[in-house]
Design a protein that fits this description.
The protein has two helices and 15 strands. With 183 residues, it is mainly beta. It has a single domain, classed as Lipocalin, CATH 2.40.128.260. A hairpin with a 2-residue loop joins strand 10 and strand 11 (120-123).
C-alpha cells in the first residue's frame, strides 16, 4: 500500500510542477495606441452608414521585443454616419470607427477611437464633421462634402486587454523577434 501511495505522490508532484512551470500568455494591453492610414478613401457625398473601410498600420506594434502587428497590416473599420452637403451652406459629414485587426496567429484585436483615462473618455477628434457658417445668402450656397483621402493618418486604441493565446516562450514561433542591439 505504501508503494502505491508513494507512486501516487510522485505523480502529483510531477503534475503540479509542470502546472506551475507554464508561463502566462502574452497580452496586448487595452489602451495601447496605434496609428493607421486609410486605404479606403471616404467622402460624405457617396459614403453610407455601415460601409466597410479598410486601413493599414503606419507603424509596428511591438510587445516583449516581438512584432505583434507589422506596419502595413490591414484592419477593418466601418462608416458610422454620413450625410451629404446641402444648400444653406450646410457641409457634409462623415464618421468612421475602427473595429479590429488580426494578428498572424489569427487573434482579432478589438479597436476603438476612445480609451478611458482616469475615469473619462479621451477622443483624438478623429471623427470630424465639416460645417460652413450660415450667412444672409446661405440659401444660395451649397456646402462642401467632407473628404478623407487614402493615406489619411489617424490614431486609435486597443479596446481591451487581448490575450494572444501563446506564452512568451512561443512568441518566436509566430512573430518576428527583434534582437537587442549590442553596444
Amino acid at each position: 500500500m505504501n508503494r502505491v501511495l508513494n507512486w501516487f505522490l510522485l505523480f502529483v508532484v510531477i503534475m503540479c510542477s509542470s502546472c506551475t512551470a507554464s508561463a502566462a500568455n502574452v497580452i496586448v494591453p487595452g489602451g495601447t495606441e496605434l496609428v493607421g492610414e486609410l486605404v479606403t478613401p471616404l467622402n460624405s457625398k457617396v459614403a453610407k452608414k455601415n460601409d466597410p473601410v479598410i486601413f493599414k498600420l503606419a507603424q509596428n506594434l511591438i510587445i516583449n521585443n516581438a512584432v505583434i502587428l507589422e506596419k502595413g497590416t490591414s484592419g477593418k473599420a466601418v462608416v458610422t454616419r454620413a450625410h451629404k452637403a446641402t444648400y444653406f451652406g450646410q457641409g457634409g459629414g462623415i464618421g468612421f470607427k475602427p473595429e479590429s485587426i488580426k494578428t498572424v496567429n489569427g487573434v482579432e484585436i478589438p479597436l476603438t477611437f476612445e480609451v478611458l483615462k482616469r475615469g473619462s473618455a479621451v477622443n483624438d477628434a478623429n471623427m470630424v464633421v465639416a460645417t460652413v457658417g450660415l450667412g444672409v445668402f446661405a440659401a444660395f450656397f451649397h456646402g462642401k462634402n467632407q473628404t478623407f483621402p487614402a493615406g489619411t493618418r489617424f490614431k486609435f486604441f486597443v479596446e481591451k486587454d487581448t490575450d494572444l493565446g501563446i506564452d512568451e516562450t512561443d512568441l518566436s514561433k509566430h512573430f518576428y523577434i527583434i534582437k537587442e542591439k549590442r553596444t
